Amino acid sequence: MKYGIIGRNGRMGNEIYNLFSEKGHDLVFSYDKEGENFLETPEVLIDFSLPTAFEKVIEYVEKFRCPLIIGTTGLSNEQITKLKELSQTLPIIQSYNFSLGIQVLLRLVKLADKLLDDVDIEITETHHRFKKDKPSGTAKMIKEVLNKEVNISSLRLGNVPGDHTVYFGNLGEIITISHRALSRRTFAAGVLKSAEFALKAVAGFYTFQDIFELTKEE
Amino acid sequence: MKYGIIGRNGRMGNEIYNLFSEKGHDLVFSYDKEGENFLETPEVLIDFSLPTAFEKVIEYVEKFRCPLIIGTTGLSNEQITKLKELSQTLPIIQSYNFSLGIQVLLRLVKLADKLLDDVDIEITETHHRFKKDKPSGTAKMIKEVLNKEVNISSLRLGNVPGDHTVYFGNLGEIITISHRALSRRTFAAGVLKSAEFALKAVAGFYTFQDIFELTKEE
Amino acid sequence: MKYGIIGRNGRMGNEIYNLFSEKGHDLVFSYDKEGENFLETPEVLIDFSLPTAFEKVIEYVEKFRCPLIIGTTGLSNEQITKLKELSQTLPIIQSYNFSLGIQVLLRLVKLADKLLDDVDIEITETHHRFKKDKPSGTAKMIKEVLNKEVNISSLRLGNVPGDHTVYFGNLGEIITISHRALSRRTFAAGVLKSAEFALKAVAGFYTFQDIFELTKEE
Amino acid sequence: MKYGIIGRNGRMGNEIYNLFSEKGHDLVFSYDKEGENFLETPEVLIDFSLPTAFEKVIEYVEKFRCPLIIGTTGLSNEQITKLKELSQTLPIIQSYNFSLGIQVLLRLVKLADKLLDDVDIEITETHHRFKKDKPSGTAKMIKEVLNKEVNISSLRLGNVPGDHTVYFGNLGEIITISHRALSRRTFAAGVLKSAEFALKAVAGFYTFQDIFELTKEE
């Protein structure tokens, strides 16, 4: 596919570029603080930049009339509303977490919770020492999926990219479901899956969980 | 319920007696090397003894005309055939593993396998030093559920009751699903669930997986 | 050896009796709520009862003039002082944790802490749902050994006998040291080791850590 | 310090350059397939290249008369002999594994083995799917340190940089010591430690284990 990136030189921009190149996709447009680089009109636009670049993002989407995958964090309610407006005529995919494995973890956790009775549940998450917030957003997502009061333990340790574990224990046995991110590449893979989906999708507002559910029929 | 045990003084007989008593059920019949102890006709009969006692088991089932839960290992094909004959008129539940958690593990493993692409899969199992066979029967069940060539690593360690772990890994992330037995109590709980099921079941031959599937609708 | 137990019918009393019997030692004296059972004067006395039985314990030690291993929890300062007085003429071994493995864990943690620079340290402990206190006494012992401010995460899960893990992480690697109790038997083994030590020891007041250090020369 | 790298553009050359720059050290010489880049005579020379460049390495060491840290794998016996000759007048540090954590793991494993009796020992190692050899060299080092027959289980999983775990289990408890590499950075840190050591060392042939032992007094 022919794609464009806004935030091309950021950490995620780089990861996306590397994975997409490896898979034979062509970067035909990019935009960053340094300015724009236009070769051709992209079939899909990817944004991993900052909320301050949001107006520029909208401008480009309206110019190219192509689907948008947006992973920029910290969007305001007004910005989300604007995306939903756009989604009436174009596919817009918005998420704060593009990891396929975390979506699988959530599904497994839901199933385990349904199948097990009389269990205690505990969540642990381990991240690098630079992470300021406790608990992680993903741990909160897990708790939400369980929809009950669950204790979350947060460990801050060296340079761990991100581990999440959910324990279910009763008087006879323990079941544990864990996810360990090895690198940022996994997030780029989720963006690629989203871009492939977007090319064939009808107009609408999608989260990464929607992509996951729609492309993986049980 | 009013229940009977054949193999009352064995390890599993003991565990079953303790759990059933705790839950308010009455042992009204038992049979062991020491002989029989009859108070009343049981509503359900449980057998955790030896294949050599099989004829006695059949004799009692035919006398009491009640459902049978049989966890005795090493049954011959003829003995299984005999059980199937009996199951035309009575509910017969036969299994070599009455752990609820292992059934949940199998379900989780199946779901993870369906949802994940391009993953390597590895299975590890850890058991006490006295276990002679490698790999464990449960590890083989997991491999069967995956229905593909998967490496199984067997660890023999001290007095571990039984740990099983399945790893799914791609280039970006690892998902792990583990089961750890804390004690034999978990198997007794599976027997209780089976007995409760048997009281309401129509005649037929059931495995523990059937019980699990039939009593836990997704 | 010929030994006696005070608190013979308690959980630990039972475990001790089972292990000591297996190893060929003779129970020649016991005392419990039900009363005393005297066959012969013991060479060593073991107390796992309640602080309320403390006077009786002292009475028997003075009568038998034999070493005492005391694992009863919740002793008052006065009671400890009384033990120290007794230790001027007899070996007295007092501890709240008779696990050999925990002593090994402490030694490993000390060594890792000495060898590693610029690491974050995290402690987790997992215990059964019935445990009321958080964090566990053993987790506090680990923190004391490290002698620095360390975060402890406590998980309460089913019927886990007791897991403790210490993580050391820097920007490149993680080292983990874990201890998992499989059963109460491990504590009985520590009592046996203490009893063997006591038979040959000079008068004095010992903790279980002393026994461990004195019997295991590095 | 002023240092030089042979194999500057390789994966390890890059990691070393990044870490050394971060710590304020100056690359004053480099050599690679593309040719040499000489700014100043280095105080220490680092080689992470190929055995085919060995003659060039020796040539530069003799020209600069400076210590050498050499991590190139697959050296022949003749090449090792040549290094030992050189080490009569210069410090030469040679190793196939510059991870500090693995050295700590080896020390912990040795201590645990000394302190524990009647244990079963198991080793597991997990590496990315591209690793061809089983078991890993590091797992073999662990086995050598234990100096007894120990089972090694090898898992090949996605893109795992390298996990090693040693289990010690008896009838009552399990002790586990694990090492998990997060990235190549840890190896660069070992090279830096070696370079700092080399600047102050007397002539001699050292392995990384020597550096570790000499700089970390227990």
C-alpha termini separation of chain A: 28 Å
Please bin the fraction of helical residues of chain A. Answer: 25-40%
Q: Based on helices, strands and strand pairing, what is the structural class of chain A?
A: alpha/beta
Number of helices of chain A: 7
Q: From the alpha-carbon coordinates, what is the Rg of chain A to the nearest angstrom?
A: 19 Å
Number of domains of chain A: 2
Number of strands of chain A: 11
What percentage of the residues of chain A does DSSP assign to strands (E)? 25-35%
Q: Outline the biggest β-sheet of chain A.
A: 7 strands, mixed
Mean pLDDT of chain A: 93
Domain Dihydrodipicolinate reductase C-terminal (chains A, B, C, D): 101-211
Subunit structure (chains A, B, C, D): Homotetramer.
GO molecular function, one term (chains A, B, C, D): NADP binding
Function (chains A, B, C, D): Catalyzes the conversion of 4-hydroxy-tetrahydrodipicolinate (HTPA) to tetrahydrodipicolinate.
What is the gist of this entry?
Chains A, B, C, D: Homotetramer. The structure is a homotetramer of 218-residue chains. Chain A has helices at residues 11-22, 54-64, 77-86, 100-115, 137-146, 185-200, 208-215; strands spanning 2-6, 26-32, 35-38, 44-47, 68-70, 91-94, 120-127, 151-156, 163-169, 173-181, 204-206.
